[in-house]
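ok, trying the design again with the full structure, not the truncated one.
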């Protein structure tokens, strides 16, 4: 039991960077950014595969999609004081208004220790033929034990390519997490970012 608890803590120390959690763990994840409202829920069937549902609203086209979501941990590198991961991401489903099919595919990589984190994610959305890149550099100004609130300061850079046009956004983000709850809040003055996640 104690080993499972510490494994859980390690896995969730940077949970928003990890699309797969411990075996049989359940997750609810809500995210709002300038392009999408995204609600996800799922269960990790194994230690490297999460499956669940996803409701995705495209805020630009006002379309909503009901999707089956898969996240697969393809490779993990464990070092003495750090960890790196490579994930494959996919979703498939239907437009809730006209039942047209829609899918997403993506790849996610990250590296972190207790002070620093680097993340890169690329995701393609078939309904709009959009390719979205999210890059994060993060720093924790202090380290705490597992019973206290941890704080991360994140530089989040987002690029979206669609209709032969690029759009760029930068968000300073603050991440707070304690036990099984995580909140991220960011704003660049014109746009806001919000994310909430819990597991059980």
């Amino acid at each position: 039991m104690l080993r499972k608890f510490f494994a859980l803590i390690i896995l969730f120390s940077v949970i928003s960077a990890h699309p797969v959690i411990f075996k049989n763990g359940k997750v609810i994840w809500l995210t709002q950014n300038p392009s999408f409202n995204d609600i996800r829920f799922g269960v990790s069937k194994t230690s490297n595969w999460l499956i669940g549902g996803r409701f995705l609203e495209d805020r630009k086209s006002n379309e909503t999609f009901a999707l089956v979501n898969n996240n697969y941990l393809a490779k993990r590198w464990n070092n003495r004081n750090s960890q790196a991961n490579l994930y494959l991401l996919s979703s498939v489903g239907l437009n809730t208004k006209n039942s047209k099919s829609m899918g997403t595919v993506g790849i996610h990589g990250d590296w972190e220790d207790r002070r620093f984190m680097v993340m890169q994610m690329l995701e393609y959305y078939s309904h709009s033929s959009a390719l979205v890149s999210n890059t994060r550099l993060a720093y924790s100004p202090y380290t705490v034990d597992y019973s206290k609130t941890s704080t991360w300061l994140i530089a989040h850079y987002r690029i979206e390519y669609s209709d032969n046009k690029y759009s760029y956004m930068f968000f300073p983000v603050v991440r707070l997490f304690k036990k099984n709850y995580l909140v991220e809040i960011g704003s660049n003055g014109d746009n806001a970012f919000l994310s909430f996640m819990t597991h059980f």
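Keeping the full-length input from now on. The two ends are 15 Å apart (CA to CA).
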